[in-house]
Design brief:
The structure is a homodimer of 304-residue chains. Chain A is α/β, with parallel strands linked by helices. Chain A contains 14 helices and 9 strands. The longest helix of chain A has 29 residues.
């Protein structure tokens, strides 16, 4: 680890799960002093062994930090760790910055930015895409909403975690961009699983089909990366169905608020809820094929 | 043009439209003797000037050819040029090969293969993807169904037109693979247009959104190539809505025959029919945004 320089901000990190662990580690490796908090402290232990200071609450992290990053599970967790009684804002010194990297509600992002302002704390929303592999390899896309000056201040830190970093607009805009990302994935995944189910029923070899159609105008990250896993019957996440259902729910609520009817997104949520109802909520998003199978017995043979 | 060698088969070409023209031209440039027929003879004229012999009917082409390629508009056109009274099979010498490269019905492909067999003519189905650009640059994907020995005989000709060439199985399998391709595009396009409409309504800059989300797990050929055209309000085809509706109809009919419910494909056809009803049947597939706009007034500003 490089030595801490005096002018570097002190960093706090809340949420050291499958994504946050690697992101926090990259920041430490770039030579920043780090305080960490995680609901299950054992997941933060390797970071403590690298030199991070373990705190007992989000407020404890905030009290010793200039910039605090949060990446937790659901909007209710974001609300708790940032706005709660022992939350970040309760103890963050004026002039501080809070960056929520959880995929969460645009409305909540705006609310947190407003509450921060009242305490002279700037709150950015900065959800990411790229999954655990992107986090580990520091190749995430980071979509940021909030104050442009603060974005510039935090940008060097984003650059140690991600490859594509973009300020999308005012508070909430990072979350909106992430929603656009998830809506795009939702439609694409419907195409992927319907295409593979059709090909299978038509008697085609699905690996050959993927090799042929994945290269042209039908090609996508999803067909080329998740298609072969579907054919192999490997439904390990990747990105988990339960979390994707959360994201699609946020997107649908926002769309409703904007009086926007998005029939593909509605269909995707209906199908993903079916996947969860079948008991596959903790499998990867490509388990969508299992909802199509249930809709179309005789069974798609997953483990043939 | 290279000189014709004596052992090369004589080639016939039926359908010299936006795709067929270039494909035929590549075959001629590879040194094959060519007979051509097109419903509008003027479109074949540049090929005649390059040395092709213009014929007055599909039968006229067949009589002078060892291998005949067809690429026309709709299944009814395929039926007419191959099975019709002055069609290819009426005059094709025994031992000949007919290759239909139109995107058409798997059932029709099987029927033509059977009728061919009775006349000792082998019929392959070999639809393509890659569009007019792929045809011009000889970078098509070619998905073939039919007899493996005949496939090997025709493969050198496929290789002068395309980059990816694959035998998918018996007669009809090429068409089935193309259907899987179109089903995949249909789902992806729903994701593309819903994502961009959401982003626009949320106040984001759509070009920035495409640049960010097009690179990761949401990325696809469609978002990266057609997304910017949507933002620019440029709906020139690419691939035409009218033809895509034909393809989706064939796919849905086949799915029904296989007792397969594909809700995303059904939704896509409903939305594309809406695009056509709005008067945009001759625009590109990315005009799907116009159906979403109609579903969600105030209008998506196409030409802002």
């Amino acid at each position: 680890m490089r030595a801490q320089t005096a002018d570097k901000p002190r960093i706090g990190w809340i949420g050291t799960g499958v994504m946050g662990f690697w992101m926090c580690r990259h920041v430490m490796e770039a030579g920043y002093v780090m305080s960490v908090y995680n609901r299950s402290p054992d997941k933060a232990q390797p970071l403590v062994e690298m030199g991070a200071t373990l705190k007992q609450s989000p407020a404890g992290v905030a009290a010793d930090s200039d910039i605090v990053f949060t990446i937790v599970g659901f909007p209710k967790d974001v609300r708790e760790v940032i706005l709660g009684q022992r939350g970040v804002l309760s103890a963050m010194p004026p002039g501080g910055v809070v960056v929520d990297m959880t995929t969460s509600e645009p409305d909540l992002a705006r609310q947190m930015a407003e509450e921060g302002l009242q305490r002279q704390v700037t709150v950015l929303d900065a959800p990411v895409s790229g999954g655990d592999v992107g986090a580990r390899e520091a190749r995430l896309s980071i979509m940021v909403g909030g104050d442009p000056e603060t974005f510039k201040r935090v940008e060097p830190l984003f650059r140690v975690m991600g490859k594509t970093v973009a300020l999308m607009g005012p508070a909430g805009s990072g979350q909106h961009c992430k929603m656009a990302n998830q809506i795009l994935i939702a439609g694409t995944m419907i195409g992927v699983v319907e295409s593979l189910l059709y090909a299978h029923r038509a008697g085609l070899d699905r690996d050959t089909v993927i090799a042929v159609i994945g290269q042209g105008a039908a090609g996508s990250w999803s067909i080329n990366n998740l298609g072969p896993r579907i054919v192999a019957g490997n439904f390990e996440p990747g990105f988990m169905v339960d979390h994707f259902i959360k994201d699609l729910g946020i997107a649908l609520d926002e769309a409703t608020r904007m009086k926007l009817e998005l029939p593909g997104l509605s269909l995707a949520r209906r199908l993903y809820r079916k996947v969860k109802a079948l008991g596959h909520g903790r499998k990867g998003t490509h388990a969508l094929i299992l909802a199509l199978e249930a809709l179309n017995p005789p069974a798609w043979k997953v483990y043939e």
